[in-house]
Structures are given as structure tokens and as C-alpha cells.
């Protein structure tokens, strides 16, 4: 009885993008089954600013943080609320769920069970069929108004009777037949001409009609569950009615999507149960692990994403997904269908941007600040071609918080322009000892080693940190990237928020840089990637900077993947180099001396990264973590890949919920928060500084 007492207090309520979050005074009226809110506590005696009927509602703690939750009413109205802390959120969620369960069961107990009747939608293709003719006694309004009646003691609310549900089902059957006729009419149109079956407005109409029928069916099944509760008894404690799987077959658009139900736990593959049972990452060792490059082997996998057939076959899934999106909508938390995934994690994709280590190592060879800035621009512009695998716009796996990726490259010294001031003899004796330990067991030092480590340091927002270094060349790069995705209509835009820092310790120079936006275009046909936006590279010490523009293709004319840029000396505003071309084809560098250099990216040699075998990787290293998803995608088993992917994502949500409830902060493994950014815990500029300090102390 204590749990059914009214509760009240201040919560923050999200209004819209303009107004944002506002404090409002909320009252949970358990007797009436209502959640009401007022401007403040003093106006509580006035009419509520808003009221939600809790019967049939869904109360959902948000996974974006430990304070937010949503109340989704059966009428379709939603409140997005935020408590002051995790404890207060749990208090409100628990009381709301108890109240919701109580009033939902009350509706079910006051309604007799549904009459046994089966409906065949396959035979309802004609609107003139006698079985779907509307009878005068039908009253659709009574169906849709059920969520708007307030429950109060002493009053009996008009309830939906079984024959009304039969009428509604027949109306839905008729609408479903009309929707099928619409789809057939569109698909029978020619593929060329003034009005085609691929017209974007018609495709959107198909998607919207599918989503509408699915939404109506979800509502119908909530009512069915309410009636069934009388036969099955009370719902388990703490549960509420949630959205159910559709019974109406709206073509095959759920085949590989995010709305499939899975078999019982006992029928799941052992690999899925293993994915779900991996313990909380915080309970595993969070100590930074030193990876021995000698344990890494040259990568032999070749997962080129050049299969265009899958996208064409799954267009209906894309249409269904589009029907649920709005322009400008943040896609960070949208679950995308599995078939559009690349067979690699986003962390590994960042590593693939380092596939030309010879150009990376050559930066420090420049004899002047001007040369080094130009070398960095050349490396920067050549990194995107290999980072994108194949022409199709597929999406890498979203990393799980705590996920890591390690690899390295071995670059023969003969393939890097030699410089007398940058070889091993330039290192101090103490640094040579450190280097010798790092390369212990190697018989020859005929190559440079570039090490790479990446870690997913945050889930909301999704932030990745990555770091690469070459001890022999005294250079390293540290970066953190937050990916923000938005729906733009017929394309998807991804903004790369963050900053990178290249350190050339031999010269005492630091170069800051940003990353361009990426766009997936033509998502209804054959999606492709283009880059866009302006990025800047700056070196405060030397006064040199570079401004690079990635041009998106205009609506009419123009070239794809065009890029232009210039390097200048800030003090004199003198342009010392101009660059133009395509970032995935040929680049032209024109220097102040009049000399011109062409770089054909399609002919640049790619150095394969070295990765530890799966059996030597930790449970949260990318390839081992996603191995079952990757194997299923390679085998073409999309359903199985979806099941493994869901198991990982569900485990992450459960772990985050547990941390919120226990107020346990997440501890990163390799990166530390510094200001607004993330920095590798043992960057080269710190380790070499420590060695030099120890050398000075010994002297």
C-alpha cells in the first residue's frame, strides 16, 4: 500500500530544441492512474499543464545517462524527464511502473477475453470483399479514445468490448489490403520516364504506409494483451506492457531489421550466451597492457566492402528505417540494420588511416618547418583513401565502451627517406636502452615500428581515443573523436568532433588538426561516401598552417571527391604550396618554386598492419569482441549476425544500468581525460622526458 501512495516533486522536462529542459512540478496520482505536472508547486491547485494516462504506458529508463527516463503513454504522447540523480530516477521509475501495472491490469480484468477468431489477410486483397465491408455499428472512435479516459474510484470507465476489437481488426485488414494495392501500383511503374517506381516521393510513400500499418498493429496488440491478462493472471511484479512484435505481415521488411524477436535463451547459440555473460568490464583487469609487437602477425584478412547486391535486396528495410526518421534527427542511438555494417570496428577503421606509414615517418625528415608542414598535409590527404574500404557506404561497428584495438606496422628503413639527424645514432644512450628493450629479440633493426592503440572511452557521447608512435623517429600522434550522425533526407551526415595532435619531438613541434565530415549519399539505391567541410592544420611554433576544403558535389555538374587546399606562412601570409585533386584518386601539389608533384593514391603501396591472433587477444579487443558478428557477415548469415550484435549491445546497456544504479564511475584503460580531450596515458613526449630527466639525475 505504501507503494500506491501519491508522490510529487520537481523533475526536468524536455520541451523542444528551442526551449530545451525546464523544471516542472510533477504529481503521480495513483488513485486516478495519472501523471500530472504544473509550472511550479505553488500552482498545484490550478489546472495541470499536462496529464498522461498511465494505463498501458511504458516507463523506460534512458541509456543516455543515469538521470533520464521516458514515459510513453498508450495515446502516443511522451514525456522525457530527468531526475537529479540515479537514485531519484529509480524512485520515480519504480513508482510509475507499479501504478502503470495496477491500472493496466484493471482494464484487463474489467474486459472479457477476446472471442476466438482467426483472420486471413492474404485473401483480403479486394476492398469489395464482403468480409471487410464496414457495418453501421462500427465505431472506430471508441477504439482510439480508450487511452484518454481517466480512471477514478467510484466511476466505471467505458471499456472496449471484444466485438469492437473484431471490427477494428476488419478495418485494419481492409487498410492492409489497400496498402498492398498501393505498393503493387508503385512497383508496376516503369523504371524510366516521367514517373518511375524509383521516384523518391513514391518510395517515401511506400515506407510511410508500411510504418503506419505497423504502428496501428502495435496498438492493437497492446489491447489484446490487456484482455489476455484476465486469463493469465497478474503480470509479474515490476513489469509493464511494452511494444510487441507485429502480427500483420507488412511484406518482408523486418527480416534483417531491428524489430525481430529471438528464440528463448536455451535455443541461443553458445557464442551468444557467451557474449551476454562476459562480466562487467570494470571487474576485469583495467590495467594498461603492454603489447609486444613480436606477438603480432601480418594481417591476412581482406574484407573489401564491394558487394552491392545486399543493399538492393534490402531496400524495403531501408525504407522502413527512413519512415521512422525526421530531418536533422540525431542517429547516434538509432539501431541500424545489420546488413549495412562493415566487417570491422570503428576503432580498426581509425587504424586503417595509418596504412601509409612511410609517408607518416617521412614527415620528420623535412629539413625545414615549411617542408615538414607540406609533408604532413601530403600524409593527411592520402590517409582517407585506404581508411574507406570499397566504394559502398557501409558503417563500421559502433565500439562498445571499454573496447580496444591494437596493431603495429613495420616499415623497412630503405623505403623511408633517410636523414642523418633522425637515425638511431641521434638517440641518447638511455633512449637507446629503452629502444633496445622495446625491440628485444629482434636480430636486425632494418625497419621502423609504428605502434597503434585505440579505445572507446565514452558511450554517451560516443568518443574514441587513438594514439600512434614511432619511438625510433621520436614522433607520435594523439587524437580523440566524437562521431555525431544526422539524417539529412536522402543522405546521412557524420560530423567528426574532436582534435588530433602530431608531435615531432626531434624538432619540438606540435601540429593540431581536425577531421572532415562524411556523408552517405543515395541511401535508397547504391549508397556511396563523400567527404565535406573545411579542416585546419596548425603549428604554433613555426607559424605555418594549412587550410583544406573537402568539396561536396553540387546538385548539377561538378566533380566527385574534390579537395583543394593551401599551406601558408602566417607571419607573411605567403602561400608556399597549393593542392587540388580528388582525395581518392590523384592529388596535385604546386610549390612556390613552380615545381608540381602528382600523387596517384590508387598506386600508393599499402603496408599491412600487424595484429595479434584472436586467441591472444583480450575479451574486449575489437576483433575478438566482434568475431561472431564478423564471421556471420562473411557467411552471409544476416540474421545470425544481428543476434550476436544484439547480445553485445544488450550487455552494454545492462552494464551501464548497473553502473548507474551503484554509482560506479567508468574507468578507462589507456586514455586519461584532460580538459575537453583524451590523452594516451604514456605518450612519447612524457616517456622520453622521463628518460632525459633520469639521465640528468644520473650525471
Protein described:
Heterodimer with OSBPL9. Residues 269-305, 637-658 are annotated as: Disordered. Pfam families: Oxysterol_BP, PH. It catalyses: a 1,2-diacyl-sn-glycero-3-phospho-(1D-myo-inositol 4-phosphate)(out) + a 1,2-diacyl-sn-glycero-3-phospho-L-serine(in) = a 1,2-diacyl-sn-glycero-3-phospho-(1D-myo-inositol 4-phosphate)(in) + a 1,2-diacyl-sn-glycero-3-phospho-L-serine(out). The chain is of the alpha+beta class and 699 residues long. Among the domains are: 7-108, PH-domain like; 297-418 and 446-618, Porin. Helices cover 29% and strands 25% of the residues. The chain is built from 15 helices and 26 strands. Strands 11, 12, 13, 14, 15, 16, 17, 18, 19, 20, 21, 22 and 23 form a 13-stranded antiparallel beta sheet that branches. It has a seven-stranded antiparallel beta sheet with strand order 4-3-2-1-7-6-5, covered by helices on one side. A hairpin with a 5-residue loop joins strand 6 (68-72) and strand 7. The protein is globular, with a radius of gyration of 30 Å. The N and C termini lie far apart (77 Å). Residues 113-158, 230-267, 279-285 and 419-443 have low confidence and may be disordered.
Amino acid at each position: 500500500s505504501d507503494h500506491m501512495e501519491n508522490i510529487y516533486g520537481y523533475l526536468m522536462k524536455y520541451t523542444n530544441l528551442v526551449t530545451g529542459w525546464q523544471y516542472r512540478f510533477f504529481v503521480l496520482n495513483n488513485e486516478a492512474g495519472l501523471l500530472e505536472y504544473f509550472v511550479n508547486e505553488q500552482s498545484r491547485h490550478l489546472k495541470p499543464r499536462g496529464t498522461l494516462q498511465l494505463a498501458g504506458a511504458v516507463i523506460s529508463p534512458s541509456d543516455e545517462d543515469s538521470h533520464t527516463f521516458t514515459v510513453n503513454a498508450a495515446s502516443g504522447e511522451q514525456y522525457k524527464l530527468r531526475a537529479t540523480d540515479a537514485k531519484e530516477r529509480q524512485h520515480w521509475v519504480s513508482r510509475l511502473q507499479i501504478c502503470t501495472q495496477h491500472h493496466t491490469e484493471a482494464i484487463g480484468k474489467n474486459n472479457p477475453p477476446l472471442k476466438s477468431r482467426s483472420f486471413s489477410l492474404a485473401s483480403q486483397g479486394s476492398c469489395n470483399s464482403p468480409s471487410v465491408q464496414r457495418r453501421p455499428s462500427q465505431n472506430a472512435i471508441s477504439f482510439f479514445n480508450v487511452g484518454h479516459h481517466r480512471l477514478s474510484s467510484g466511476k466505471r470507465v467505458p471499456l472496449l468490448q471484444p466485438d469492437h476489437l473484431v471490427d477494428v481488426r476488419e478495418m485494419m485488414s481492409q487498410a492492409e489490403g489497400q496498402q498492398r494495392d498501393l505498393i503493387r501500383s508503385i512497383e508496376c511503374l516503369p523504371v524510366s520516364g516521367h514517373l518511375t517506381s524509383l521516384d523518391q516521393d513514391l518510395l517515401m510513400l511506400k515506407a510511410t504506409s508500411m510504418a503506419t500499418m505497423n504502428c496501428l498493429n502495435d496498438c492493437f496488440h497492446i489491447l489484446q494483451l490487456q484482455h489476455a491478462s484476465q486469463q493469465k493472471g497478474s503480470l509479474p511484479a515490476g513489469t509493464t506492457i511494452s511494444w510487441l512484435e507485429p502480427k500483420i505481415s507488412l511484406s518482408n521488411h523486418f527480416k534483417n531489421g531491428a524489430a525481430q524477436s529471438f528464440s528463448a535463451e536455451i535455443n541461443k547459440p553458445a557464442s551468444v550466451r557467451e557474449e551476454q555473460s562476459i562480466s562487467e568490464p570494470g571487474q576485469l583487469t583495467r590495467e594498461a597492457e603492454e603489447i609486444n609487437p613480436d606477438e603480432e602477425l601480418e594481417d591476412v584478412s581482406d574484407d573489401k566492402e564491394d558487394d552491392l547486391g545486399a543493399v538492393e535486396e534490402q531496400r524495403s528495410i531501408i525504407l522502413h528505417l527512413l519512415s521512422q526518421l525526421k530531418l536533422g534527427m540525431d542517429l547516434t542511438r538509432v539501431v541500424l540494420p545489420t546488413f549495412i555494417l562493415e566487417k570491422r570496428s570503428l576503432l580498426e577503421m581509425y587504424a586503417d588511416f595509418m596504412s601509409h606509414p612511410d609517408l607518416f615517418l617521412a614527415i620528420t625528415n623535412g629539413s625545414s618547418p615549411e617542408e615538414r608542414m607540406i609533408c604532413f598535409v601530403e600524409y593527411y590527404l592520402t590517409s582517407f583513401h585506404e581508411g574507406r574500404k570499397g566504394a559502398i557506404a557501409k558503417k563500421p561497428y559502433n565500439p562498445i565502451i571499454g573496447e580496444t584495438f591494437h596493431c603495429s606496422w613495420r616499415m623497412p628503413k630503405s623505403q623511408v627517406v633517410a636523414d642523418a639527424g633522425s637515425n638511431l645514432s641521434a638517440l641518447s644512450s638511455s633512449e637507446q636502452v629503452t629502444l633496445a628493450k622495446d625491440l628485444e629479440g629482434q636480430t636486425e633493426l632494418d625497419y621502423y615500428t609504428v605502434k597503434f592503440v585505440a579505445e572507446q572511452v565514452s558511450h554517451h557521447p560516443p568518443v574514441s581515443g587513438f594514439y600512434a608512435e614511432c619511438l625510433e623517429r621520436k614522433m607520435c600522434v594523439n587524437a580523440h573523436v566524437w562521431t555525431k550522425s544526422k539524417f539529412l533526407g536522402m543522405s546521412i551526415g557524420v560530423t567528426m568532433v574532436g582534435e588530433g595532435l602530431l608531435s615531432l619531438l626531434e624538432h619540438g613541434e606540435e601540429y593540431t588538426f581536425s577531421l572532415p565530415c562524411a556523408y552517405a549519399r543515395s541511401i535508397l539505391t547504391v549508397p556511396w561516401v563523400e567527404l565535406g567541410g573545411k579542416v585546419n592544420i596548425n603549428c604554433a611554433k613555426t607559424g605555418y598552417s594549412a587550410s583544406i576544403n573537402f568539396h561536396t558535389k553540387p546538385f548539377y555538374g561538378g566533380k566527385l571527391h574534390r579537395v583543394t587546399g593551401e599551406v601558408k606562412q602566417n607571419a607573411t601570409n605567403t602561400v608556399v604550396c597549393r593542392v587540388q585533386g580528388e582525395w581518392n584518386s590523384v592529388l596535385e601539389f604546386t610549390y612556390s618554386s613552380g615545381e608540381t608533384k602528382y600523387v596517384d593514391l590508387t598506386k600508393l603501396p599499402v603496408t599491412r598492419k600487424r595484429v595479434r591472433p584472436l586467441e591472444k587477444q583480450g575479451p574486449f579487443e575489437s576483433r575478438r569482441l566482434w568475431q561472431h558478428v564478423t564471421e556471420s557477415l562473411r557467411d552471409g548469415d544476416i540474421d545470425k549476425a544481428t543476434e550476436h550484435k544484439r547480445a553485445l549491445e544488450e550487455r552494454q546497456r545492462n552494464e551501464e544500468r548497473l553502473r548507474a544504479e551503484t554509482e560506479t564511475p567508468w574507468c578507462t584503460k589507456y586514455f586519461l581525460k584532460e580538459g575537453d580531450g583524451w590523452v594516451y596515458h604514456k605518450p612519447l613526449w612524457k616517456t622520453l622526458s622521463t628518460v632525459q630527466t633520469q639521465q640528468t639525475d644520473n650525471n
